[in-house]
Amino acid sequence: MSFTVAIIGRPNVGKSTFYNRLVGKRDSIVDDISGVTRDRQYGVSDWNGKVFNVIDTGGFVPRSEDIFEAAIREQAQIAIEEASLIVLMTDVTCGITDLDAEVANLLRRTKKPVLLGVNKVDNSARLYEANEFYGLGFAETFFISSITGSGTGEILDAIAAHIPKQEEEGEAANTIPRIAILGRPNVGKSSLLNALLGENRNVVTDIAGTTRDSIHTLYNQFNMQTLLIDTAGIRKKARMMENLEFYSVIRVFDAMDEADVCMLILDATQGLEAQDLAIFRLMVQKKKGIVILVNKWDLVEKDHKTAKQYEDAIKAKLAPFNDIPILFISALEKTRIFKAMETAMQVFERRKKRVATHELNEWLQEMQDAYPHPSNKGKHVKIKYVTQLPLHYPALAFFCNLPQYVKDSYRQYLENRFRERYEFSGVPIAMYFRQK
Ligand code: GDP
Ligand code: GDP
Predict the structure, then answer these.
(1) Omega of the bond prior to 394 within 30 degrees of 0, cis?
(2) What is the 3-state secondary structure of 408-431?
(3) What is the number of alpha carbons within 13 Å of residue 433 lying toward its C-beta?
(4) pLDDT grade for 208, boundaries at 50, 70 and 90
(5) Kind of pairing between the strands at 261-267 and 178-182
């Protein structure tokens, strides 16, 4: 199940500092167009085994003074409708501002959990001043310092307490494959859906466990039966361009969390941009099956080398994990769109593949014979055995004498060879090294 936390509040209260605490390491992306590095605004957090999506809405607010207030009000509204839990962030050094009070009023009316964060409470003098924020009337009020980390554990505990116990993703043996169609606005998601379905459009709205509002379409052609999850309708609902991305991200999270395989649609005339890469990284992190479809291929002037060059360029940007099927399609001309579905189904099957333990261990022996782990700070790492964990995505547990000395390069070596041997194109693989 998808659980998304939205952090809202005025500029400079410390939303992004808090976000970075939640999502862990500060991971930034480079914007292809401007060449500047900017912080990623959404990611995945894991606290006490509860996994949830986090969105820092600050990144979506225009900097301009005269419109940011309206944008923040609107974000509060969108968060009320779309997020699972809202953190309203405030700044103790400013006291309660009019906008804080106004947004708090909006948020108090929702039944969704709202946690009030009073940030920059770095010392005991400020703790005293922070008491005024109880006046905003939230039962769950936390005095925190996002910079020092003080109090952030408590608010994380409170967030986690609101998350229902997470069951293993819905791959009970007989569910049909779920394929999400994802990508930026205008890349051609609706066109692809229409091209695939033709007249056979069969929109499913009442399948248990499907996400409210996202469009589910049963695809039942050419011996393939799948549920297509579509986020194309997003644009029609989002009212203001400034918040389109914030709105879209919540929907993308929902669709992605539900899917077994994600089709990432790109626009051939634009290539792979920072935003596409951010979505791709999330898919990898969530261990979803992935297919990349470069749409509008009809618009590209090409010779026999173009596709290969284009593919290489994308793979260079995806690295290190780029063992992904990439297809060049045209939704408009219906070129290779069935091939795209077939490929998604193959990825679905691969993601379920199990390699028998004895076979895995023969493979591991062979790998270590061919290339033993190089000594690391004088330590000799020996991997004793490997087993595939019973998860809904491929996950390998390697048992070894000194797991903390396993080199990244060796991990990569094993993953690459494993992929070559067993064919896992489009499927992220988890690898754990454990003490034995
Ligand atoms: P945002 O605009 O709400 O995302 O705010 P930022 O996270 O960018 O933070 C704005 C400024 O407040 C930065 O200079 C931060 O270093 C600072 N800041 C954030 N959290 C704290 C805190 O807990 N204590 C103090 N003293 N400063 C903080
Ligand atoms: P969405 O926002 O991702 O759902 O994108 P749409 O399906 O609405 O497509 C955006 C625009 O791109 C529309 O004008 C489509 O006609 C156009 N388009 C979509 N697919 C193709 C394609 O394969 N080739 C060309 N030339 N145009 C396309």
Answers:
(1) no
(2) HHHHHHHHHHHHHHHCCCCCCCEE
(3) 18
(4) very low
(5) parallel
Name the helix (H) or strand (E) containing 191.
Answer: helix 189-197
Torsion-angle region of 249 (φ positive above 0: left; ψ -120 to 50: alpha; else: beta): alpha
Asked whether residue 244 carries a pLDDT value surpassing 70, the answer given is: no
Return d(Cα 125, Cα 129) in angstroms, integer. 7
Nearest alpha carbon, ligand 2 atom 17 = 188
Q: What is the pLDDT of residues 341-387, one digit of tens each?
A: 999 999 999 999 999 999 999 999 999 999 999 988 888 999 999 99
- 231 touches ligand 1 (CB under 6 Å): no
**Residue 218: both structure tokens together:** 């049963």
Residue 60 Cα distances to 7, 45, 63, 388, 414, angstroms: 11, 20, 9, 41, 40
Q: Residue 432: enclosing H or E segment and its boundaries?
A: strand 430-435
Tokens found for residue 162: 């609101």
Q: Model confidence over 150-159: pLDDT tens digits?
A: 999 999 999 9
Ligand number nearest CA of 22 is 1
Adjacent-strand bridge partners of 118: 90, 143
Q: Which residues have a Cβ under 8 Å from the Cβ of 101 and sit 6 or more positions away? A: 136
What's the whole-number mean pLDDT along residues 256-271? 94
Atom 18 of ligand 2, residue of closest alpha carbon: 188
* Total length of the chain: 436
Q: Is the dihedral of CA 18, 23, 27, 31 positive or negative?
A: negative
What is the largest distance, in Å, between two alpha-carbon atoms of the chain?
Answer: 71
Of the pLDDT bands very low, low, confident and very high (cuts 50, 70, 90), residue 170 is: very low
Q: Which ligand 2 atom is the nearest neighbour of the CA of 235? A: 2
Residue whose CA is at the smallest distance from ligand 1 atom 11: 12
pLDDT of residue 355: 94
Q: How far is the CA of 314 from the centre of ligand 1 (A)?
A: 36
Ligand 2 centre to CA of 346 (Å) is 26
Contact between 32 and 273 (Cβ < 8 Å): yes
Cα separation of 132 and 221, whole Å? Answer: 62
From the CA of 267, the nearest ligand is 2
Q: Residue 189 — very low, low, confident or very high, per pLDDT cuts 50/70/90?
A: confident
> At 23, which helix (H) or strand (E)?
helix 15-23
Contact 357, 363 (CB under 8 A): no
Written as six digits, the tokens of 291 are 């297919």
